[in-house]
UniProtKB/TrEMBL annotation:
InterPro entries: bL21-like, bL21-like_sf, Ribosomal_bL21, Ribosomal_bL21_CS
Pfam families (UniProt xref): Ribosomal_L21p
Protein name in the entry: Predicted protein
A molecular-function term among this protein's GO annotations: rRNA binding
An annotated GO BP: translation
Species this chain originates from: Micromonas pusilla (strain CCMP1545)
NCBIfam families: L21 (TIGR00061)
GO cellular component, one term: plastid
Cross-referenced SUPFAM superfamilies: L21p-like
Keywords carried by this UniProt record: Plastid, Ribonucleoprotein, Ribosomal protein, RNA-binding, rRNA-binding
Entry keyword Nucleus: no
Length: 198
């Protein structure tokens, strides 16, 4: 019993010296940079890192590499090495309505769009959409029945990719039936280069 008491008394001073040590300075360094305060400063430190070379093998397979300069600007580099113009912010007036990939989209020249996978097209391929539902010249729209004759939208395929994962969950109450599946839709991103109006 006395041996146990001796070890306890020997441990107690060590604890006391640890608690009386000088307090740790404000924040530890963030990814090699000095400690910063506030969310804005933290974001600036993160953006200052070079994102040009992917950190892992998994990221390098993704296809998109964004440099730190591209974060400040709004351009990105896709699978064919073409710097795509920004498709963010206020949308300009539309030039045509196209039926593509099982859906209808308002499109404008010089912007890129995404649709369900177009079969058999590789990045860099030039394609033309003949199913144009409407075009806009100035303020006067032209609607087809169902398609506008002589209208065509020309585009360049930028990349094929998988969309974000969706969870498909089936459930029957009181029947012990649950099924959980994930689904990632194959998508195609294309850049509209020209809208031919009748």
């Amino acid at each position: 019993m006395s041996a146990v008491m001796a070890t306890l008394s020997a441990v107690a001073p060590a604890r006391a010296t640890r608690s009386t040590a000088a307090p740790v300075s404000a924040k530890p360094a963030f990814m090699g940079a000095s400690a910063l305060s506030g969310k804005a400063a933290l974001g600036d430190a993160f953006c200052a890192m070079s994102l040009g070379a992917p950190a892992t093998r998994k990221q390098s397979r993704g296809g998109l590499c964004i440099s730190a300069s591209a974060i400040g600007q709004t351009a990105s580099v896709n699978q064919i090495g073409f710097a795509t113009p920004p498709s963010t912010g206020a949308s300009p007036t539309w030039d045509a309505i196209v039926e593509v990939g099982g859906s209808q989209q308002f499109v404008s020249e010089g912007r890129y769009y995404e649709c369900h996978s177009l079969k058999g097209v590789e990045p860099g391929t030039k394609i033309a959409f003949e199913r144009v539902l409407a075009t806009l010249s100035g303020d006067a729209p032209t609607f087809g029945a169902p398609y506008v004759k002589g209208a065509r939208v020309e585009a360049t395929v930028l990349e094929n990719f998988k969309d974000k994962k969706l969870i498909v969950f089936k459930y029957r109450r009181k029947k012990h039936y649950r099924r959980k599946n994930g689904h990632r839709q194959q998508m195609t991103r294309f850049l509209v280069t020209k809208v031919v109006k009748p």
